[in-house]
Design goal:
Elements (H helix, E strand, L loop, with lengths): L1 H27 L4 H18 L9 H14 L6 H12 L8 E3 L7 H8 L1 E3 L4 E6 L2 E7 L10 E5 L2 E2 H8 L11 H19 L4 E8 L2 E11 L14 H4 L6 H21 L1 E2 L4 E2 L1 E6 L5 E6 L7 H14 L4 E5 L8 H8 L7 E2 L4 E3 L4 H6 L6 H9 L1 H11 E4 L2 E4 L2 H4 L1 E2 L9 E6 L6 H11 L4 E4 L9 E10 L6 E9 L16 E2 L4 H6 L3 H13 L1
Parallel strand pairs: 12-13, 13-19, 19-20, 20-23
Antiparallel strand pairs: 1-22, 2-8, 3-4, 4-5, 5-6, 5-7, 7-8, 9-10, 11-12, 14-18, 15-17, 16-17, 21-22
Helix pairs in contact: 11-16
């Protein structure tokens, strides 16, 4: 029996290694022109089959021409990375932000991954902002704080500005909006650089500070550097011996960890940034202004968070409330529907019935070629239940199919503790998807004063809800697409633009370098002027 187990483990290991080798070979070898044309045809077919609003912003004749031109431009063999660079800008012409193109990089063996986990790439510690046509270091998580506020002139000899402008062609906002591009390329610059150049161990960056220019090599380094050799340490054994912690210290440490886990469950947590997803506090010179920062609507026990927060707001008779949706890329419909119940001042229907291209969108989502076989097997077991549910929930009207999320489409009253005071909402180009749907309601009902810049997500809704990730068979490039049109009942004309601020306030470089929140400062000044 033991021998059989060892044989099985060895077999799995060999299959895994072979799979990794096969994948790496597939994405690095040159694909024939015919095969790449086949990938393009399959992708366009997938979009036409599953995307309910494919021609909402770009007419069919124009999009047909774009894809035909792409095929004509590919007249020589190329690898997957080169193909991705030509494909992504064409897919972006759909002008639907949830249609995305991703490139799978090199895969590693378990041994290689174990070694990589012990290292970090200093380049990824850079928090950059693309402003005024230049790339700046907004923050640096590494040891060299002098990099903060410096302009990145070039990376490995290439202009940082030109790189950013190229990367901006590889994704889209919803419709004709422009504010998302600089914001999103700032947030994802490292990701697009990786897709562009592949796996690297070091990069030489050239920085500029006023009139001085200097270079620095950012490397892949150990997360926990080894301590100096014992012979070089002058401290005595008594000095370096760790102090024994008291029982009281251990108890406090356990309680602190327990409290932190509790907060993570309630507020959500983003490990990469070491920030909570949801934050609530009182600000201002007299600590009377409620401030809620929501980084996304994706994780954590949101109901408990909002119940506690709005109970505090009600108990303190708060008269000013700032809801910060900047850089909030969206998330769960359930959460924004729940939150709006605390902000609405009259009965509301949160979303309309969602347009889809077929009656079983959930099954189409699961049964994709990127879904693991184990999930497909489980999905097939529940197929009768899911299919029946989908058929009940969908209906046909004017030759279009609609899915009814009854929980969110029915009329609801505001919650008993709904906030009725003065509401300010902070938005920017990275306010997208679910945060834009929430903003549409607040804007349409004149419930809030919006400060900042136009949202990257459209006022009239977005194609999201359920997603399908499709892998192109030859290049292995992945394309993600939403399957449902999610929209609020309210509409604006012209179509294709985001929620626009009542007062446009844009951050400037000096304030960013000084750590000043330009938009929030405007609200604080306005509140105290009113008072």
């Amino acid at each position: 029996m033991k021998k059989m187990c060892y044989t099985f483990i060895l077999l799995v290991f060999l299959v895994s290694c072979k799979s990794i080798e096969k994948h790496n070979t597939q994405i690095t070898k040159l694909h024939t022109v015919q095969d790449l044309h086949l990938d393009i045809d399959k992708l366009y077919k997938q979009l036409k089959r599953h995307h309910p609003k494919l021609y909402q912003y770009t007419p069919k004749a124009v999009l047909d021409f774009k894809f035909d031109s792409l095929k004509q431009s590919i007249n020589r063999p190329m690898d997957s990375r080169a193909f991705y660079k030509q494909l992504a800008p064409v897919v972006a012409q759909v002008k639907q932000g949830h249609v995305s193109v991703g490139l799978e990089g090199k895969r590693f063996t378990r041994k290689e991954l174990k070694a990589l986990k012990k290292k970090k790439f200093e380049f990824y510690d850079l928090d950059v902002v693309y402003l005024d046509g230049k790339l700046w270091v907004k923050n640096y998580k590494g040891n060299d704080s002098t990099l903060i506020g410096k302009e990145i002139v070039s990376i490995n000899g290439e202009s940082a500005t030109k790189l950013a402008e190229v990367y901006k062609t590889r994704f889209a906002s919803d419709g004709y909006n422009k504010t998302l591009y600089n914001r999103y390329v700032s947030k994802t610059f490292a990701l697009y650089y990786y897709r562009d150049k592949g796996f690297l161990d070091s990069l030489q960056l050239t920085f500029k500070a006023k009139d001085s220019v200097f270079s620095k090599v950012l490397r892949r380094i150990d997360k926990n550097p080894k301590k100096e050799n014992k012979d070089s340490i002058s401290a005595s054994a008594e000095d370096i011996k760790p102090k024994k912690r008291s029982l009281e210290d251990k108890k406090e440490n356990r309680l602190a960890k327990k409290q932190f886990r509790k907060q993570k469950r309630k507020r959500g947590y983003i490990p990469k940034d070491k920030n909570f997803t949801r934050n609530f506090k009182y600000i201002g010179k007299d600590s009377s202004i409620a401030y809620m920062k929501l980084r996304s609507f994706t994780n954590g026990n949101y109901k408990r968070f909002y119940k506690e927060s709005f109970a505090k707001i009600d108990a303190k008779n708060t008269s000013h409330f700032v809801l910060d949706l900047r850089d909030n890329g969206g998330g769960r419909i359930a959460e924004i529907d729940y939150l709006y119940g605390y902000l609405a001042n009259k009965p509301f229907q949160f979303i309309k019935e969602s347009e889809v291209t077929n009656r079983t969108p959930f099954i189409k989502s699961v049964m994709s070629n990127t879904t693991p076989n184990s999930i497909k097997i489980i999905g097939s077991l529940f197929y009768p239940v899911v299919a029946t549910y989908s058929l009940i929930k969908t209906k046909k009207h004017n030759d279009k199919i609609y899915f009814d999320f009854n929980k969110y489409t029915r009329i609801k009253a505001p919650k008993p503790l709904a906030y009725t005071g003065k509401l300010f909402v902070l938005i920017n180009g990275n306010s997208f998807s679910a945060s834009s749907i929430l903003s549409t309601h607040l804007k349409a009902t004149k419930r809030a004063t919006f400060i900042g810049e136009e949202t990257g997500g459209a006022y009239n809704g977005t194609v999201a809800g359920v997603f399908k990730i499709y892998r192109l068979p030859v290049s292995q490039v992945k394309v993600g697409m939403g399957l449902m049109q999610i929209e609020a009942p309210q509409k604006q004309n012209p179509d294709g633009y985001g929620i626009k601020p009542d007062v446009e306030v844009l951050p400037n470089l000096i304030d960013i370098q000084s750590g000043i929140d330009t938009e929030l400062e405007w609200i604080l000044k306005d509140i105290y002027k009113l008072d």
